Amino acid sequence: MIKKLGRATALALLIWVLIFTAISIIMFIPGVGQNTKYFMLIIDPLIVLLCGYLYFSKVGGKALDGLVIGIYWIVFGTILDMIITIPLFVKSYSVFYGEWSLWVSFTLSLVAAVLSAVIFKKKI
Which terminal residue of the chain, N or C, has fewer Cβ atoms less than 10 Å from its own Cβ? Predict the structure, then answer.
């Protein structure tokens, strides 16, 4: 169901880098850093929507394709988090995956991926 695996993988990496960068910047803004998780609930799905546009406007797709690509992007990002983010910055898998905001963000990102497949269909 992933029509262009290379493109999907490149966008998965872009999503992870943009989210990592956004979190890194927001958490050091005075007065805002304590609320990083709330900002990410808005920023994460917007990043996925943008990357969904970059993917589906070239490849096309349906809602199921959006769900599949969304799951792929989440799994890809999770693997990078397990290799890089958690060992280097968080130090605890249970703390990282115990955050309610992470799971809400995953859900919103899936919704954004499905919406991007439906909204940004390739024009024939």
Answer: C
Q: How many domains does the chain have?
A: 1
- Is position 71 within any domain? yes
- Give the range of the structural domain holding residue 95, as residue numbers without chain letter: 5-119
Between the CA of residue 38 and those of 23, 32, 77, 121, what are the distances in Å? 11, 10, 19, 30
Task: Count Cβ atoms within 10 A of the Cβ of residue 104 and give its class: 0-12 exposed, 13-18 middle, 19 or more buried.
Answer: middle
Which amino acid, one-letter code, is at 77? G
Determine, yes or no, domain membership for 124.
no
pLDDT by residue (tens digit) across 43-102? Answer: 999 999 999 999 999 898 999 999 999 999 999 999 999 999 999 999 999 999 999 999
Of 60, 47, 53, 49, the residue nearest 14 (C-alpha): 47
Please state, in angstroms and rounded to a whole number, the distance separating the CA atoms of residues 93 and 53. 32
Write down the pTM of the prediction: 0.93
